[in-house]
Amino acid sequence: MTVLLLYSGHDGQTKSIMSVIAKEISTHTPCEMFDLNAFHNIKLNNYRAVLIGAAIRYGHFNKKLYQFADSHFQQLNMMPSAFFSVTLTARKPEKRTPETNLYTRKFLTKTKWKPQLCEVFAGALHYPRYTFFDKYMIKLIMKITGGETDTSKDIEYTDWQQVTRFAHHFTKNMLKQ
């Protein structure tokens, strides 16, 4: 059976992370990857496992993530399921676990879905792609939190080795169930 990979992002980093994970999973079993915001009529019983990745913007996940988790928590809890978040706060190593990342911890507390595997990845700043409003709001947040404020460049914070380790862990543990 196939593994379902759903992502919810803003500027492409969550999709990029999920694509790396999908490449690893696909060497072991078929997988299908979809944007959670555009995916409808989900029949989870057609899948052997589910992995959801979601980005945080201005301290919040997309409402579609909450809707999906609320609508499908019973089935998700009965099958192998995992979750990862993507956030700029995780650029600091001490904010890179589900226990230490406030946004991820808050999501896991609010939802009845209890993923068996959870990870937090640092995102990226894509200043040149942002709208005027986003560019300056994110720059302000970065200034307050000690992050990069040069709006002329992209800044990659994602630890790709961490992503690869997570993909291996997901494949080894979640697909054996």
Query: What percentage of amino acids are in beta strands?
Result: 15-25%
Sheet with the most strands: spatial strand order: 2-1-3-4-5
SS content category:
alpha/beta
- Separate helix tally: 5
> N- to C-terminal separation?
12 Å
Radius of gyration: 16 Å
* Domains, number: 2
CATH superfamily of the largest domain: Flavodoxin domain
The CATH topology of the largest domain corresponds to Rossmann fold
Shape verdict: globular
Which architecture of the largest domain would the CATH scheme give at its second level?
Answer: 3-Layer(aba) Sandwich
How many β-strand stretches?
A: 7
User: What profile does the largest beta sheet have?
Assistant: 5 strands, parallel
Residue share in helices? 25-40%
List keywords for this structure.
single chain, 5 helices, Rossmann fold, globular, 177 residues, alpha/beta, two-stranded antiparallel sheet, 2 domains, five-stranded parallel β-sheet
